[in-house]
Amino acid sequence: MRELKILAVVVVLTLITYWGVEPFAHSQMHPHVDPVNYNFEESDRTTSKEAVEKAQKSLAEAEKKADEKAIKGAKADLEAALTFEKTINAFWDANKAAITATPNVANGEALVTANCTACHSIESKGFPKLMDDASTAGAYGVATPDLGSAGKLYSKDYLIAFINNPALASKVSHKFTDGRAHPMPSYELMNTPQEVADMVAYLQSIAPKEMTNKEVFHDACQRCHGLKYADMQKGTMGAFSPDADITKYMGKLPPDLSQYIISRGPDYLGKFINDPQKLLEGTAMPRVGLNQESQEQVIKYMEEIGASKKAEREELGPKFLIYLVIFAIFAFLWKASKWRDVH
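^ Cytochrome C, sequence as received from the core. Prediction below:
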């Protein structure tokens, strides 16, 4: 009976640690992050509003302490937050005309051909790369993507936003100040909302209906990130952009993602891909802008590479627990038979 009491105490303490102490510690070490939101307009309006509220709170705290230096910095932060909130809200308001327009696919084909194929390939429609990846990375900082799958990977709203202003759409406008410009020009002043809607409609019309997990990762992530352990028989999957170019463009070399599914986990990766700024404010990594299906495929492929034995582990887990229960029962019965007289 004593052993059962000891077991009960161990179980209770373990559950308290697992369900109480550990979540509390995690909440203190890691700030709350809003869940993944594929409605990027809603997400941007919410996060910009939260940034203003955070800046207002910091200013109030500084004023309470009567710290002039802190007050000056807090006022500057609040002014920047208010300015960005106004900018991002105006940006999404301006996108609505293209989002609600009735598109003309034929006109979109002509526009994409005229405006995009000088930098982007569309292999599926007979527009090959004019330069190899190393050359485009040397010219722009990062290898340019093939547009054949863009209509599959990204939502209509995000594509419209990105064409109009790539820096704001991908949430990296903080990188392009003091005269620096995003390598892709903004088309909001060069094309009408109707023309942008036409271009997006064309990209959606030529997109493949289905893509494998590997194909999605290839098109969405591999321009910057490699997978060192992608295929131990056939070799690695390196990033398309040379290390020197992408390091200069991003500020540091983007990490190899082979083991990130293990070190970060799918929940963290999902939030980070969806909006890196929520988890690492000021990071140079852009918001990728993937729709829900494509983002889930990217994470699934990272699981296939970095956690290829996950299914086997999960299958073995219940069997091992059953073994432990049976072993514990026999151990208890053996102990009882041997120590009955002593007790």
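Residues 68-100 form the longest helix (33 residues).
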